[in-house]
Amino acid sequence: MRAIKPLSKLRAKQQTGHRSDRVSARVRRLLVKTLYTQPGSLAIGALNGVVATGIAAYVSGLPELWIGSVVLTIIAVARVTAALGLSPDSSDTSTQKLEIVYEVGALSYALVIGSVAGLAVWRGASAEVEVLLVANAVCYGVAVAARNAGRPTIAIGQLALSCLPIMAASLAIGSLVHLTLFVTMLLLFPAMFSITLNIFGVLRDSIAAAETSAKLAEKMKVLARTDVVTGLANRAGLNHAMVETMMSLEQDSNLALIWIDLDRFKEVNDLLGHPIGDRVLSEVARRLNEVSPNGSTVSRFGGDEFVIFCPIEDRKHAQLITSEIHAEIMGPMRIDGERLEVRASVGVALLPEDGKDTDTLMQSADLALYHAKIRGRGQTQFFDSSMTRDLVRRREIEDELRAALQRDELSIFFQPIVDLETGRIRTFEALVRWFHPVKGELRPDEFIPVAEETGVIVTLGNWITAQAARVAATWPEDVTLAVNLSPLQIRAPGAALGIRNALKEAGLDPHRLELEVTESLFIEDNHATANFIQELTDIGVKFALDDFGTGYSSLGYINKYPFTKIKVDRSFVSGANVGRKSDAIIRAVAEMGSTLEMEIVAEGLETIDQVQTVRQAGCTLGQGFYFSRAVPDYLAAMLLAQESDGEPMKITG
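^ that's the sequence the OP posted. Answer follows.
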């Protein structure tokens, strides 16, 4: 019975291997599946054994062989039926069940085929019967040891059970021939043991390596689709999820794409630092995950933008979801003891109402978000077909504006800024006007925002400065020129050089140029702004802070930058909320300007009462329709001529 030892060693080694290698359940499943591959070969082997045993029983006439043939047939049919009936690919069938069913059938078949051959040898059947059955049993054992190497216990077990009965019979007979057969078969075991383990090792390592590669590939796929800051899906992850959702979408299903943009988030990064900014993004992501409905894909689309793709029942349901999301985002949050409030603009598009594919849906939501921003930020806007018409009009304006610059359709008008003590013109503010050959005069608020969005403002701004400087060079030396600058124009490469070239070509003294900027400029890009202002201040250009009181009204900007003039926004002079509070604010600004030796300009003056009010409050300069509308250059020259003839602007009733 020493032949049993290799089998017991194999079991011990395999168990140790399981403990040390810790082969995953999936790898074990794949190894067991190799037992069920090519069921045709299993059927052929079973049929071959049944036929060989039947022929041997018929030739020898031994009843034991007939019994063995019948039993073998039953086992063969059961094995083939089990192999065809059990699917190794089905998750309903456990790996253990697959292995046990195969093991019972395989070992039973090997034991019977070996026992039939051993009986033939023991009973002294004819030489041809013995050769047929012994060859059949040994060949079966050797072949199956290689085929079933994925589970070495089963493979070597089949080899042992198919050979041991023959070896026992040969040893019992004891003739030289039979003893030689015994020794020959005994030497077969270590050889096949080694071959089987080698095959098993290669097979196991290959499957384990493939498993590791598959896991790594899956991990890389997940990382490629995940935002590292928030843990949400990134743009690639969103696209993948949208494609998967659309492919499995049932008819009459409704979806919503909710596009969220955090308003002025750059200020958080600039003022508190990027680490705090990242924590704000993570907190927003957490809130979005909590409030989004089941089945939603929540993603960080990039920067401070988030996109939610979710199932909805109808438009009313989408409005409810969006309202909850918006309220959740804008709730106050505490980070490192700091209380922060984040505002957001939201654009929403619905499927199938606003688009039947993801690309159209994204475009619609983007347009809705754009309209939410231009209507004051902090708002939710659902897509409407009119938005597409607006977009077409804006693109039309963009194309025509580029052409207008070349066809001289644009003109520079000048509005005087008057000294409130003397009534004399101190400055003209340059304002652009567009007289379209077909559409007539287009208001600045129609084309300036388009120019800023598309980048045309850089070319337009440089053109305005150059044209206005040429006109200003013809005025008296004590009259200065004021030009509005867009933040985008200032951030453009070579912005200061463009201003210097315009002054040089026009022959205008830099001290006669005032550049008007708003507070949004400093929030957007402090470093670029500082360099721009410093370079032009060095050559004598002056700077004015425009629309003071409508933004953050930060005194830090006034202290940091060399402003010589502050323009109080018209809402404090002629707006609906004009009263005691606005008067007090104007007085406070005027007093500050006097202390800092700055000129204070009151904008939007339309009546003599307003002129007298701001003058008494301490404003030194005034601008508005009371004095004059913006006029062409030749009328500006006439105003200056009247003034030189001793007819200054009226500043008293």
